[in-house]
Amino acid sequence: MSASPNILLNVNGIEVIYNHVILVLKGVSLQVHEGAVVALLGGNGAGKTTTLRAVSNLLAGERGDVTKGSIELRGERIERLTPADLVQRGVIQVMEGRHCFGHLTIDENLMTGAWTRKDGRAAVAATLEKVYTYFPRLKQRRGSQAAYTSGGEQQMCAIGRALMANPKMVLLDEPSMGLAPQIVEEVFGIVRDLNTREGVTFLLAEQNTHMALRYADHGYILESGRIVMDGAARELANNEDV
After folding, report:
1. Which of 13, 42, 57, 198 gives 20 to 30 Å between its CA and that of 68?
2. How many domains does the chain have?
3. Is residue 78 part of a domain?
4. Model pTM greater than 0.70?
């Protein structure tokens, strides 16, 4: 059955195998409604990153493959599309570990995110100024090489670079990793602002359950490649098992 109109992403019972033998995801199902912030929670090795890569079609680079189930974006099957096809449809992944271009400036890093845009320089320039409005710290460092900025600034740069593509949905992988608590608060606060003001949908994978559930609308708990619990973020935050 096709997804209802307000369901942006529908992952239905997918299995993922690496190297033709290692079963990592075992029937994972989840839904992301348009305009929502959905948290994918679990410990290290639970399958969070693999789930995001299955959605963005980046598994092939890791010798992984979706062998069962389906993934739909607005009702369209997307498992066999290329990562570039997904970018054209507005799905952008921010990788775990940030992966900024160290030799490029912050400004140049952000502009790489607009490479696929076809709406003209003025529109790209307007988006760049919007990114700097949300990340004033980046504006101060716009001429600095990314390699010489802090971990928090690099995480902001990676998110800002995704925003330069005018995404409909951002897949955000471990945004709190390696960051000081006050910077984590700042990053999550900006995610919520982008969701509320710009209507960007987020699916974020995160080990910091307490922080993620404060800012998410809905959460899924992954354990050993399976979804073991899901519900409204507020209910999960008050659940002793979680």
Report:
1. 42
2. 1
3. no
4. yes
